[in-house]
Write a structure and sequence with these properties.
The chain is α/β, with parallel strands linked by helices. It contains nine helices and eleven strands. It has helices at 32-40, 42-45, 56-60, 76-84, 97-110, 122-128, 159-168, 182-192, 218-225, and strands at 4-6, 9-10, 16-17, 20-22, 66-70, 89-93, 115-118, 135-141, 169-179, 198-200, 231-237. The strands form three sheets. The chain has a seven-stranded mixed sheet with strand order 7-6-5-8-9-11-10, with helices on both faces. Helix 1 (32-40) crosses helix 5 and helix 4 packs parallel to helix 5. The chain is globular, with a radius of gyration of 17 Å.
Length: 239
C-alpha cells in the first residue's frame, strides 16, 4: 500500500490546493489486527492510487450501482452498509491507515465482498480515478468541521468540491452529507442550495431525517446520549 497522500487545503474560493507530503504508516500506530489486515486483505480489497480512471465494473467484477464514501473513519458503518446491500458496489476512501486496516479486518470478518478501499486523498481520487457519471451515491459523513472561523475555508464542502462530486454522479445520483456540527450543517446548506443541477431532497428545504441507509455509529450514539444533534443533507443530481 502506497504511503504518499495528497493532503489538500482550500483557497478562499474553496478550490483545493494540492500539496504532496509523506504519509507514513508508523508501526506503533497500528494494532496487530490492523497490520494483519493491511498485509493480508489489502491485496484483495485495496485499490492503489493511479493516474488512470477506474473501470468500476472490472474492479467489482460486475456492473452494479456504486457508492463512494469519503473519509470512512474505522469503516464500521461502511462495512454495515456493504453487508446490507450485497447487490451494490461500495468504494471507500480514507487517509489514515489504522482506519483502513480496521475496515479491512471488519469486512473480512463479516464476509463482505462488494467493498473496495483506498488510502489516498479523496479530491485527487475524484479528479483522476472516478469516471464522470458513474456513481449512484457519494457519502460524506462527519467530516472535519474546522470550527474556527479562520479555518472555515479548509472545510471540504465548498462549491468547487460539490461541483466535482456532481460530475461523478449519474443523473438521479445523490450526494449525502452528515455532520454533528450545526454550524457546519448550515454551511453545507448554504453551499449546496444555490448550485445548479442539484435538488435538495428535504421536504422543508433544509435537512432530511436520517435515512435507514446510514447506520448509526457508536460515535453518533454517544453523541445522542450527550444531547448532540446530527444533521443529514441529501442533494440529488437532476441535470
Amino acid at each position: 500500500m502506497s504511503n504518499d497522500v495528497i493532503s489538500p487545503e482550500f483557497d478562499e474560493n474553496g478550490r483545493p490546493l494540492r500539496r504532496i507530503r509523506s504519509f507514513v504508516r508508523r508501526q506503533g500506530r497500528l494494532t496487530k489486527g490492523q497490520q494483519h489486515a493491511l498485509d493480508h486483505y489489502w491485496p484483495v480489497m485495496g485499490v492503489e492510487f493511479s493516474g488512470e480512471p477506474l473501470d468500476l465494473p472490472a474492479l467489482f467484477g460486475r456492473d452494479a450501482p456504486s457508492t463512494l464514501e469519503i473519509g470512512f473513519g474505522m469503516g464500521a458503518s461502511l462495512v454495515a452498509m456493504a453487508k446490507a446491500r450485497p447487490d451494490q458496489n461500495f468504494l471507500g476512501i480514507e487517509v489514515h491507515s489504522p482506519g483502513v486496516g480496521a475496515c479491512l479486518a471488519s469486512a473480512h470478518e463479516e464476509g463482505v465482498e462488494n467493498l473496495r478501499v483506498m488510502c489516498h486523498d479523496a479530491v485527487e481520487v475524484l479528479h483522476t480515478m472516478i469516471p464522470d457519471n458513474s456513481l449512484t451515491m457519494v457519502q460524506l459523513f462527519f467530516p472535519d468541521p474546522w470550527h474556527k472561523a479562520r479555518h472555515n475555508k479548509r472545510r471540504i464542502v465548498q462549491a468547487p468540491f460539490a461541483e466535482l462530486v456532481k460530475s461523478k454522479l449519474k443523473l438521479g445520483g445523490v450526494f449525502h452529507m452528515a455532520t454533528d456540527w450545526e454550524a457546519y450543517a448550515e454551511h453545507m446548506l448554504e453551499v449546496m442550495s444555490p448550485l445548479d443541477g442539484y435538488k435538495n431532497l428535504s421536504a422543508t428545504g433544509d435537512y432530511v431525517p436520517r435515512p435507514d441507509s446510514r447506520p448509526v455509529t457508536k460515535f453518533e450514539q454517544r453523541g445522542q446520549r450527550l444531547g448532540h444533534g446530527v444533521w443529514d443533507l441529501m442533494f440529488e443530481r437532476v441535470k
